[in-house]
Write a structure and sequence with these properties.
By secondary structure, this protein is mainly α. The protein contains 2 helices and no strands.
Length: 67
Amino acid sequence: PIPCVPWQSQTSGQYQRRVHGNFWLDWRQDLGEEHEIQDLDNVDFTPIFNWAEEQKENERKIKNILS
């Protein structure tokens, strides 16, 4: 990792909160008011992350085979 100076960390944190908030507002509408997920604090996105990483690895393998 590349170390950040304090203002970079602060800016990054503000951006992440904004993205997090926008994502939640949109996703919350899709889920509906009665859905069991009512906040992101207890949502485990690990399976989705792992799937995405697996897809990237598969794409790298395919590119290596084709090149």
